[in-house]
């Protein structure tokens, strides 16, 4: 890789202790000398014979061989001698004697003195230089280059043969292409190898095998670049032509295959495919029958789908060829595409129409079956006698009945819509009947559809009549239970009024005015109770009338009336006791207040003692009455409030009685005499 001071290339011949084959060495030198260009050879070579590990006679033989291999190209031969070997005088004398005959100068030099003749930067480390050289890297590049040269040259010949054969007549061309259609090596691989090799050769620096150390490209590598580029250009040109030949052949083959497949698709669709559809016209008379027809149609569709898949693939292939833009094939391709599309779309439309018709029939039968089940459920509900537990259950049953009737109405409406839609589709069925008379089949289908709708209408009408009767009866029962519930509620209200009368109506008032107010409030309270009692009586009377109308015995009115009367009697007794106590309290307060307000100096004051005694008697009687319970007709007793409540109510009576007693004592005391002045 180095150069001498004349810019000549340096050739290094390392010798070893083992026997050196001169024949192999000669062949190697011939190969190495064939690499540089003639311009490089004209500058001559400097040969370094490394004899440090060899014998003198071997070195001498190598030097003499150089005369026969490269006599004119060698300018200088430097024999690197070992430090302690050979007779300097003998060897020097020998080469000096052969100088004129050899035609080049031969010098013996130690490795450390080789730099006298060659610059250190042009010598490798073996001779004390700094030139970095990786022999394995160089060898690998040469092997790649020579392999590429061999493969590319062979490939160029094959491609030229194929490409030239494509320009001849049709028969000869077909034979040529069939015989040499595929090259022995992959053109893409060879091109990739060439590009990678060229990329390495074009780099200014190369990485050595030691990693990180670089060395400058040699002349043989620079010389290989134009060769690789030239081969790559030729390969690309021939490969492009080869690809075009392959494309034309593939297009012709593809066109023939497309024509054959198109005819297969068209013949099947217009033959067996159409015959399958001609035999399928019925819609079935039930869900199961329609489903069976659908399953049969799915089998037909499955067979068609295989051919439709072929159609899609053919259509894509035709579209790709049309996009290629070859005018010679455009007319034929478009005709094939149009013919294929027309047949496939017509057959697909017929399949879709048949599928939609069967789906509509299945939906119609499904709606009819659901409606029939709804009518059966409604009829079963109407045939069962109503025995509800209360008004709420009757309301719930009535609501359920109305919902079922509404659901039946919606179902019948949906059935009419589905039936009309199905009839419309059947009327259009003759448009693609291929000339076959489908009147009989259509009439059977139409009669079946209309018969189903009429039957459902009659069943629905019968159920509606029964629902009207049941609704009236249930509304009366609702009213009956409502009256019974309200009557029971009236009893509860009256009981609550009685309870409130006993527990909260306890006060007797602090004076006559307040007691009168309490008495007036009590009368209003009694009026409310009276209204509640009257309301309950009216409800119970209505219950009797409804029971007679429904021809049934009320389960609660017989118990409610005695309860109502019993509570009302208890309330009446309690109310009368309350009125008596309030009226007594009014009389007591009026009398006491009148006496207490009179002036004792009046002459008639002495007549009040008797009145005061009467007032005390009334007050005591009232206090005694407060401790007595209310006795009901059934013998039960009930007190007003608690003992503490009664004590609080009697407190004001006792206070006023104390005032009356004090007043009576004052009246009984003699008046003091006033001294005469």
From TrEMBL:
The gene is Sestd1. Residues 1-135 form the CRAL-TRIO domain. This is SESD1 protein. It comes from the Eukaryota. GO terms for molecular function: phosphatidylinositol-3,4-bisphosphate binding; phosphatidylinositol-3,5-bisphosphate binding; phosphatidylinositol-3-phosphate binding; phosphatidylinositol-4,5-bisphosphate binding; phosphatidylinositol-4-phosphate binding; phosphatidylinositol-5-phosphate binding. Keywords: Repeat. InterPro entries: CRAL-TRIO_dom (IPR001251), Spectrin_SESTD1 (IPR056804). Signal peptide: none annotated. Belongs to the SOLO family. Pfam families: CRAL_TRIO_2, Spectrin_SESTD1.
């Amino acid at each position: 890789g180095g150069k001498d001071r004349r810019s000549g290339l340096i050739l290094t011949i390392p010798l070893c202790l083992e026997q050196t084959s001169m024949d192999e060495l000669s062949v190697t030198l011939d190969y190495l000398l064939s690499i540089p260009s003639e311009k490089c050879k004209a500058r001559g070579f400097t040969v370094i014979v490394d004899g440090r590990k060899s014998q003198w006679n071997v070195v001498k033989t190598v030097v003499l061989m150089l005369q026969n291999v490269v006599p004119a190209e060698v300018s200088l031969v430097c024999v690197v001698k070992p430090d302690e070997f050979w007779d300097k005088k003998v060897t020097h004398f020998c080469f000096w004697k052969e100088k004129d005959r050899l035609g080049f100068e031969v010098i013996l030099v130690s490795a450390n003195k080789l730099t006298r003749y060659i610059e250190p930067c042009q010598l490798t480390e073996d001779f004390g230089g700094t030139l970095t050289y990786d022999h394995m890297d160089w060898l690998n590049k040469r092997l790649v280059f020579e392999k590429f040269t061999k493969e590319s040259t062979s490939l160029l010949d094959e491609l030229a043969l194929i490409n030239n054969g494509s320009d001849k007549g049709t028969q000869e061309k077909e034979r040529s292409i069939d015989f040499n259609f595929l090259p022995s090596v992959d053109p893409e691989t060879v091109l990739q190898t060439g590009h990678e090799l060229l990329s390495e050769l074009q780099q200014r620096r190369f990485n050595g095998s030691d990693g990180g150390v670089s060395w400058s490209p040699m002349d043989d590598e620079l010389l290989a670049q134009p060769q690789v580029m030239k081969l790559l250009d030729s390969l690309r040109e021939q490969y492009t032509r080869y690809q075009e030949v392959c494309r034309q052949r593939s297009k012709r083959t593809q066109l023939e295959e497309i024509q054959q497949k198109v005819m297969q698709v068209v013949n099947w669709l217009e033959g067996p495919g159409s015959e399958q559809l001609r035999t399928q016209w019925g819609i079935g008379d039930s869900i199961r029958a329609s489903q069976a027809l659908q399953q049969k149609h799915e089998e037909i569709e499955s067979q068609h789908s295989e051919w439709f898949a072929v159609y899609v693939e053919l259509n894509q292939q035709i579209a790709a060829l049309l996009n290629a833009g070859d005018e010679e094939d455009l007319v034929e391709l478009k005709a094939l595409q149009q013919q294929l599309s027309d047949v496939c779309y017509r057959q697909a439309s017929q399949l879709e129409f048949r599928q939609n018709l069967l789906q509509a029939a299945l939906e119609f039968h499904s709606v009819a079956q659901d409606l029939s089940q709804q009518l059966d459920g409604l009829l079963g509900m109407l045939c069962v006698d109503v025995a509800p537990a209360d008004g709420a259950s009757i309301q719930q049953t009535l609501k359920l009945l109305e919902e079922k009737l509404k659901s039946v109405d919606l179902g019948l409406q949906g059935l009419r819509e589905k039936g009309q839609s199905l009839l419309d589709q059947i009327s259009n069925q003759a448009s693609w009947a291929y000339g076959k008379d489908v009147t009989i089949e259509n009439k059977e289908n139409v009669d079946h559809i209309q018969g189903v709708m009429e039957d459902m209408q009659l069943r629905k009408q019968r159920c509606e009549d029964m629902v009207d009767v049941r609704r009236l009866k249930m509304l009366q029962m609702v009213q009956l239970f409502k009256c019974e519930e309200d009557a029971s509620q009236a009893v509860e209200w009256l009981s609550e009024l009685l309870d409130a009368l006993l527990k909260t109506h306890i006060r007797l008032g602090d004076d006559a005015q307040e007691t009168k107010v309490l008495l007036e409030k009590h009368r209003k309270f009694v009026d409310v109770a009276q209204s509640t009692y009257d309301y309950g009586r009216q409800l119970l009377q209505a219950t009797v009338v409804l029971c007679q109308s429904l021809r049934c015995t009320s389960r609660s009115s017989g118990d409610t009336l005695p309860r109502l009367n019993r509570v009302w009697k208890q309330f009446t007794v309690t109310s009368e006791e309350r009125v008596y106590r309030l009226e007594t309290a009014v009389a007591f307060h009026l009398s006491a207040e009148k006496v207490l307000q009179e002036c004792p100096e009046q002459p008639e004051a002495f007549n009040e003692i008797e009145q005061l005694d009467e007032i005390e008697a009334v007050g005591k009687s009232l206090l005694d009455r407060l401790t007595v319970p209310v006795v009901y007709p059934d013998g039960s007793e009930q007190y007003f409030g608690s003992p503490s409540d009664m004590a609080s109510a009697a407190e004001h009576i006792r206070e006023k009685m104390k005032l009356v007693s004090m007043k009576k004592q004052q009246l009984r005391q003699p008046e003091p005499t006033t001294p005469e002045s």
